[in-house]
Amino acid sequence: MSRSDSATPRSAHSVLEHRASLSPARAASVAGRPESAVDMWLGQQLRQLRKQQGRSLADVARACGMSLGLLSQIERGLSSASVKVLHLLAREFQVSVNSLLRNAEHTQGEDGGRVARAGTHRFIDLSEKGISKEMYTPPACSSMDLCRATIEPGGSTGNELFVTGQGEQIGVVLKGSLELWVGDRVMLLNEGDSFCYASSTPRRWRNPGSQTTEVIWAISNITQPAGDDTQQAP
């Protein structure tokens, strides 16, 4: 793989321009907003690259001259990476900035951002967990997110329960089955079953079956105060 491009690719320009315009406090505050899907996607790519190269968080942070805590937050999608940090990480992992930002840019949509056409939706690839997500939220929508999660057999969010701040989530299983832990309860959901929970409720989920599972999630977003390290995710 080639090293980071010396010039920022045109396809990534608007994303970097937006990040560069944010103050550190503002950059931290957007982590819990609808745009956090971009940060989550970037973080997953960085984590995969680091693990593929067999490197620790401390090693990469030291090589890039940044704090361990900041790198950890970026990998988890809780902080936005600045233009400088993106270039440092791309150079360290020997990839282009464009490859890190691929599919991360918001499209303008149509009708003032109220319509997002097929083929323009962003994808979040969590292949190490056997999960991929297609984000259906039109650009003009600021209070809700809509996505479709595709979960491979055995794919899961992990063995630990997690929470994602405030708001509510509702979902419906389109295909396959979903094993959902909410608090101390476990539910087996099949095709056509729907469910809901508060985003602040500890949970985890996995595909226990032998075929791919597809789930539609609708998520209400409540803006987090600056410094709050939560994010909205199914």
From TrEMBL:
Q: Where in this protein does the record put region Disordered?
A: 1-28
Q: Which UniProt keywords apply?
A: DNA-binding
Q: Which PROSITE patterns match?
A: HTH_CROC1
Record bears the keyword DNA-binding? yes
A GO molecular-function annotation: DNA binding
Matches recorded under InterPro entries: Cro/C1-type_HTH, Cupin_2, Lambda_DNA-bd_dom_sf, RmlC-like_jellyroll, RmlC_Cupin_sf, TransReg_Diox_bact_type
Compositional bias per record (Polar residues), positions renumbered to this chain: 1-11
Task: Give one Pfam hit by family name.
Answer: HTH_3
Carries keyword tRNA-binding?
no
Q: Which residues form the HTH cro/C1-type domain?
A: 46-100
The record's Gene3D superfamilies line, in alphabetical order, gives: Jelly Rolls (2.60.120.10), lambda repressor-like DNA-binding domains (1.10.260.40)
User: What is the designated name of this protein?
Assistant: XRE family transcriptional regulator
Organism per entry: Achromobacter spanius
